[in-house]
Fold this sequence. Notes:
The structure is a homodimer. The first copy, chain A, has helices spanning 12-15, 18-30, 42-51, 67-91, 131-139, 162-175, 207-215, 223-235, and strands spanning 3-10, 35-39, 58-59, 62-63, 96-99, 107-111, 124-129, 143-146, 149-151, 157-159, 178-186, 204-205, 240-245, 255-257.
Amino acid sequence: MKNKLTIVKVGGAVVEDEAQLTQLLRDFIAIEGPKILVHGGGRRATKVAERLGIETKMVDGRRITDADMLEVVTMVYGGLVNKNIVARLQALGADAIGLTGADANILLSAKRPLKKGIDYGFVGDVKKANGSKIAHFIEANLIPVVAPLTHDGEGHMLNTNADTMASETAKAMAAAGFDVTLIFAFEKPGVLSNPDDDNSVIKSITHTDFEAYKADGTISGGMLPKIENALSAVDAGVKRVIITKATAIDGQHGTIISF
Amino acid sequence: MKNKLTIVKVGGAVVEDEAQLTQLLRDFIAIEGPKILVHGGGRRATKVAERLGIETKMVDGRRITDADMLEVVTMVYGGLVNKNIVARLQALGADAIGLTGADANILLSAKRPLKKGIDYGFVGDVKKANGSKIAHFIEANLIPVVAPLTHDGEGHMLNTNADTMASETAKAMAAAGFDVTLIFAFEKPGVLSNPDDDNSVIKSITHTDFEAYKADGTISGGMLPKIENALSAVDAGVKRVIITKATAIDGQHGTIISF
């Protein structure tokens, strides 16, 4: 039987709110068995950049990372947010270890080439997530807390989307032999059939369901890439992906995406 | 026979200079056997604080760390400086992992009480360095890169002097059974018998030598606490402490302090 592993990805809005973060970390610790936390921190980065007089430029929700912004995200994601979470988990009795992709070379990336003429700057597209390295930490009973930063193998840190970090980590851990549940914690209770009704959570989505929901317009807009991303993780061996509210990460709530 | 372990402490001036850092990292990698790098970053923290409009206050060379400054050092030491070094070591083929005291709970501290009426703020005095935890990384063939930050076990990061981080780590590793060489890399070629003559390096200092040098005034001022600190590490089982120039960390240069 495969070892169970739960990977929770939590975004900046939760991480940067004291009360929400405290609750999230308690709920995270309550998850049975080995686990990994992947966090964002974009709002905090934007705030620090602003105080430093560095302008934040976004294209389609993605941060343009010039050299100054790379320093900001390295400081904020790898230092401020990551170490704050690690210290809090330690206080709750969880033996956490903060990691970026550079640490123990767990996530190697390549600087993104121009996309549709847009230069995203120092943004890394993941080339290789090292599952056996990450497994080593799990086997040592440590709880990896992963910041959304990678490295290019040539001495440079790169900014990498936290959702991507989480799904690439999940795929690598599945390939390393774990029974992986990947939970995306966000502001909504799940994938909704009616965007205005929080009670309209779709309980489960498979490839076939997704094609149907897409065809009839039930699922559209920003939710499409999220589910495509989840299905690609499932295709790569991740057992299930759950999209749920940050206050409901027990595996019993939200939308379950599986093969 | 005990396993050899070399711990190199390098200060902010070297870490923040591209050319010096590159050379230092190459020399560091060339050291045979297991090793740990402990770094500072104070100058960079001061610069970032200045850009953020946060005033840097020092007392006897120690930083007063209020809540704002704690955020700055957590960002700069734990994020910017630490991850930059880790990425560069990875590029040089060294499997580095960046750690603060909170990560895997390797260095637990207590917030410093008022000292002579001075409130140092969020500064941590090391209570426990966890040698067996650090040894675990060494045994996994990882090279710990340690930032001068600890945690209090109650969810807070604390600012801790990098020299102290290095000597406490060295003591813990000696207690964990390693044959430890602790190298303090700084701007001078060693402890000088004539502060104006870089060729006057004292080759070796024992307790007895130190008392004599102190009595006749050969060693005085800021060098006294450095050597007292080194001797206390030696008393705690560290095999030798070397005070040397950052460009000469091969163990063959500088002043060797031993029992």
